[in-house]
TrEMBL record:
Keywords: Antibiotic resistance, ATP-binding, Cell membrane, Membrane, Nucleotide-binding, Translocase, Transport
Protein known as: ATP-binding cassette domain-containing protein
Localization terms from the record: Cell membrane
Domain ABC transporter: 8-238
Record's keyword annotation contains Nucleotide-binding: yes
Location of the region described as Disordered in the Swiss-Prot/TrEMBL record: 313-334
SMART domains per record: AAA (SM00382)
Family to which this protein belongs: Belongs to the ABC transporter superfamily. Drug exporter-1 (DrugE1) (TC 3.A.1.105) family.
Gene3D superfamilies: P-loop containing nucleotide triphosphate hydrolases (3.40.50.300)
Entry GO MF terms: ATP binding
The keyword Amino-acid biosynthesis is assigned to this record: no
Amino acid sequence: MSDPDIAFETRGLVKRFGDTTALAGLDLAARTGTVLGVLGPNGAGKSTAINVLATLTRPDEGWARVGAYDVVRDARSVRRLIGLTGQAATVDEDLTGRENLVLFGKLLDLPTRRARLRADELLDEFGLRDAADKRLSTYSGGMRRRLDLAAGLVGDPSVVFLDEPTTGLDPRKRDDMWDTVRSLVGAGVTVLLTTQYLEEADALADEIAVIDHGRVIAHDTPAGLKQTAGRQTAVVRPRDPADLARAAEVVARVTQGSAVHPVGGALTVPVDDDETFTRLVQGLSAAGVSVAELALRLPSLDDVFLSLTGTTAVAGESPPESGATADAEERVAS
């Protein structure tokens, strides 16, 4: 029996494409009305996992459910619940923006009037009203991306899979998309978000799963994951730049030889515990160093990613499954 509090779940998913194992026993789950961020290096299996959940790819082993429905046995019912935006645009270049969205509505069996109304709602929401009746051949890359995102929401899905949704968007449009995701979650929608922008996962995700070589290697809240990356960092910025050297002496003495890094008029140093930070505050005060900034920071998600996978996530790289996994999938499909 499925858990009504779980919007989607996978257990032991295995998917192979020839000699390439894209998923190697993947376990994922997301609570209803939350954002699950999925991070991983190129080729980790993120897009393959979405394709299985979206009924586009059959797993070789294991199972996956969306709501109460198995993605293999109940594929049609699953498709009624979900919206999907992939890494490549799925809209038709020969149609206008409005015609594309109305077409998606009709494919979802919406009455014509409702399909047109829904298209207008989404054109407004994504800032495409002025270009609604222009052919996509006139759209910029960012406009096409926004239309593709809108198309995934035509059917008012309860679960939305967003596979690197802000790739190709400028920072302002990316912020708009973040607001859209927050709005969806506020309305009770569950979102699976893959991204190579770690700040995006940090800003949006309630929980994050890090996958590598087709399996989950860490799953926690963003704050919880940061704690696994190791030591915290103290940041000291003297109010008077002339005090930087004296502050560095205090920091070095209190932290007993930890590497002190000057960065843009501030000092950063790893600290083992809150007690060390307290001694640092006291030492600076005793030395008469007035500070403009004194903070204790958890490791960033970049630090987490590096410590877990041995690599860094670089925004703007080619899509994760554009290499061996996608090539293998294409050969199998053909």
